[in-house]
Recover the amino acids of this structure.
């Protein structure tokens, strides 16, 4: 069995040694190398070819955020787990890293007196996350390789349209699925939506617990619509966006008093909880043809099956284009499957979403 190769990047020699030692005790993991800052780590990548990088946030010469920006630009599919400190500054910087597309994070206690606690946290949290994210990345790579393997003349990617584009259905809910690079994408789209946005919005952003509430607060501060982290039994209504809480699936369920949110801690799907597919299945069942699904930048294929069900129910699907995506895994999978009614650059998505939800409310009869 091939071992998972990990590059450990941290300026603290004690942390590098402790992380490397604990990782090396797992038979499925090999420490491919270490680096004391981001500049050296980037230089080592072509030689070491790691399957995953653990990245400290606070380093001299080239810190974790700057390094992550380069990694996401040049190696968009490489999983990166941030290692942060138990401090408010560490929490703030880690949130910025998640917004830049970090795969996950682990907080480590620092100091010689906390070595045993650090070892336990590496074993209980870092090692499982390394295995989770490398499995997800490898599965996505296999699917991409199979999808792009030559089988004859390549068919051009054709923009898929609804069977009757002149008779678009009224939209009653917008459902958004997003992963790597999502916070910045959401920060571009949601603040550009009008204050009188006429339908509710539900969102799955792949993000660990504790960070979704912070993201919701940031988006709320920039937007004219309200944005909040979803809670069980929240009644959904127009002009408000709900973000699935990290660690829970979010569903919409129709009752006697309207449509409410439900949270579930059932098993992860597509290695994700929350999962876009889980939300989209419930949306297809509850709203059917009144659904507008939006798939944004992200690694993997979460949301593909959900989009299939939304289209089968008569709903609409639009996706972010490749050029503006940090990773064109999720939107690319939907587009390549022929499920996308339209492929739109990030900067045009808020206008396109608004235009589609206005249909049936302003007398417009067709898309131009």
């Amino acid at each position: 069995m091939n071992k998972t190769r990990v590059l450990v990047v941290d300026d603290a020699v004690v942390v590098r040694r402790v992380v490397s030692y604990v990782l090396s005790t797992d038979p499925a993991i090999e420490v491919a190398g270490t680096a004391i800052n981001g500049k050296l780590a980037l230089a080592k990548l072509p030689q070491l070819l790691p399957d995953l990088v653990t990245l400290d946030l606070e380093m001299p010469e080239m810190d974790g955020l700057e390094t992550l920006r380069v990694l996401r630009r040049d190696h968009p599919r490489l999983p990166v787990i941030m290692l942060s400190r138990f401090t408010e500054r560490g929490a703030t910087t880690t949130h910025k890293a998640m917004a830049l597309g970090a795969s996950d994070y682990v907080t480590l206690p620092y100091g010689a007196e906390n070595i045993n606690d650090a070892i336990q946290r590496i074993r209980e949290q870092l090692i499982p996350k390394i295995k989770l994210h490398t499995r997800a990345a490898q599965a996505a790579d296999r699917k991409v390789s199979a999808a792009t393997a030559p089988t004859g003349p390549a068919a051009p990617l054709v923009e898929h349209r609804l069977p009757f584009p002149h008779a678009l259905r009224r939209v009653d809910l917008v459902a958004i699925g997003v992963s790597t690079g999502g916070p910045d994408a959401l920060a571009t789209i949601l603040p550009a939506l009008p204050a009188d946005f006429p339908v509710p919005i539900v969102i799955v952003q792949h993000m660990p617990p504790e960070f979704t509430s912070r993201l919701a607060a940031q988006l709320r501060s920039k937007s004219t619509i309200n944005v909040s982290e979803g809670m069980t039994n929240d009644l959904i209504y127009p002009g408000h966006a709900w973000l699935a809480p990290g660690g829970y699936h979010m569903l919409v369920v129709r009752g006697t008093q309207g449509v409410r949110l439900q949270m579930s801690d059932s098993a992860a799907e597509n290695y994700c909880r929350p999962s876009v597919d889980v939300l989209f299945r419930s949306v297809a069942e509850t709203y059917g043809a009144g659904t507008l699904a939006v798939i944004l930048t992200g690694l993997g294929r979460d949301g593909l099956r959900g989009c299939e069900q939304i289209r089968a129910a008569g709903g609409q699907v639009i996706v972010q284009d490749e050029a503006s995506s940090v990773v064109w895994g999720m939107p690319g999978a939907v587009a390549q499957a022929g499920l996308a009614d339209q492929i739109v650059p990030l900067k045009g998505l808020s206008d396109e979403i608004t235009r589609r939800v206005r249909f049936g409310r302003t007398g417009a009869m067709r898309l131009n």
Remarks:
- Residues 150-166, 363-368 have pLDDT under 50 and may be disordered.
- The longest strand covers residues 29-35.
- The radius of gyration is 21 Å.
- The longest helix spans residues 115-148.
